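Minutes, project check-in
Item: structure for the 415-residue chain
Input as provided by the requester:
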Amino acid sequence: MENNKIRILSIETSCDETGIAILEAKGDFPNLEIKILSNVLQSQIELHKEYGGVFPSLAKREHEKNLVPVLTESIDKAKQNNLKTENPKISPTEEIFKYLDKNTNLKENLKKSLDKIDKPAIDAIAVTYGPGLEPALWTGVNFAKTLSLLWQIPIISVNHMEGHMVASLLKKDAPISNYLIDLISKKIPIHKKSGKYQLSKLEFPAVSLLVSGGHTELVLIKDWFNYEIVGETKDDASGEAFDKIARILGLPYPGGPEISKLANLWQGEKTITLPRPMMNSNNLDFSFSGLKTSALYKVKEMGKLNNKQKQEMAHETEEAITDVLTFKLKKAVEKFGAKSIILGGGVSANNRLKEKIKKLSNDLQMDFYFSEPKFATDNGLMIGIAGILRLAKFGDQSFLNDLDDLKANGCLKIG
């Protein structure tokens, strides 16, 4: 690490987004200033729309196709932000590529592109190893292992949900108005201006609500890297419920944003009521499968819906899901005497949910942290933040000792 600076390249392939970011941090843990040198994302959403959700084998294939060009673009953009690189003339042996034997397309893509990929001056490679779709996770893990061998740079394994959590703690180092004025006056593309962020000062204990297509969890954060899941979904996650009810309403995938658009259009007298599952249970767990079933029966009962009825159904769906999430979050905060609230995951982009939690945090006079919308979905940046924090806190102890020990885990828990 040069001049108390940490530089990390991070890889995210847990689902249908191929993300690679390069970050630089300076300062002492946890008071870090973080600079985004690049953050490149290739989405597969359009490809999965026809299936109404993510098709695992297709996701794996697309990661194999996208990883090399995303890596190249990420390094090129970081070089524009003064990242040092070198292009050593090497002829790697087949042993270097052994981890890609089950990703033959990726292996060939990487081999063909080696002369175009500069070695970045980084201290570590951070990679998501779970939770998520295992075929997709393995693709990123195997790619990271290969780059580690090729560049002789160590790996830090990162929990995907921890990535969502810590990304919500980023705050802009400079006023956004100055940033925009600078961009406009210089007439330069956004990627040429590296983003500078600081990490919010988190008070413990904190409670994090993590919500996505595959996960709905309440996590008690006792201290940095000391987590305990205190509530989780017993079936469908909140994001999955949004997607399934959107499909019932004939809306495209992903369903959450589509339901929110319709919900914002609804006005009038309430005629539809959906249940708030497990609202009065004696625990902090969630269940959303019954909500989907209720929505299905309600739509069948009503027959073909007109636009106004679709808008009201979308509005009631959003209210039901966000009511349950906020209520359970409040119970967790009160039970554990939390001093801070963190909202993370793709569903954290839902404005109605943020509005309700903001009111809750104001009523309880607590700090509330959530990510910028562009960082809410899966991306390489969030994995890089988690990697930087671990490297800043634990130093070389955060590195994997043996690459063979790194395995994808689709059911990985945080804690």
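Outcome recorded: The CA atoms of residues 14 and 38 lie 19 Å apart.
No further action items on this chain.
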